[in-house]
Design a protein that fits this description.
About 75% of the residues lie in helices and about 0% in strands. By secondary structure, the protein is mostly helical.
Amino acid sequence: MPWKPILWYVASLFIICLHTFPIYITVVASFKNIRDFSSKWALPDQILLENYQSAIYDGGFYSALSNTIIITAFAMLIVIIVGAMTGYVLARLNNRISNFVILATLGVMMVPTISLIVPLYRIMMMVGGINTYWAVIVLAATYQLPLAVFVYTNFIKTIPWALDEAAEIDGCRPVSTFVRIILPQLGPVTTTVTILAGVKIFNEYVFALYFLQSANMRMVTTYVSSFFNEVPYINQASAAALLGALPIVLVYILLQKWFVAGAMDSSVK
């Protein structure tokens, strides 16, 4: 009897359980009474919606969600536009300098966000960026650009040079070639970038904590963390976390088909 397939199945099942258990605990806790501190694994005696009602009406959920959507949307607009244009230039140059830039870009991805908080905070204090949308939008977009540039560069390298040459013969300048020829082909990879970078921006915590200190400027992550005070309200926090995760889950479900296609095209071709 071959043991290798069985080991793969067991390992896969173990990984699935690791990812499923936290979701199960969160869902179960969200339907329990706020004062129910029974086992996290035990199902609630009755399904209650008071945690969701409290999270929505008492915790400022709509404000946090709208702040998060605004920041994520504008940051992703910057990431997609700048990332696609930079990726096109690096892919078409394809020399030592462009390869060095790509490696340097990957190196930036390794820098922890928290290590730069102090200088970034001082700069934002000087330019009036505390408690403003634009500060977090610029910072979040900057930190996600390396990933976008890397993915776009690899994808555009697979697009034949002949298209650029044909466009040049027809009188197109590089910018016109990018807009008319290259950009329409970037749909799948743009979906991939939107999912990968968008989820990280949506879940941004460090920048939101330090640069959006006002209660009405909270993002979803800091909104959920507000339930953990001296007396943590675990069940309400669970409901808030599920409500906060719902929009990004719906976006992923809607874009899943193009996400898989873009990920395969940018990594395999």
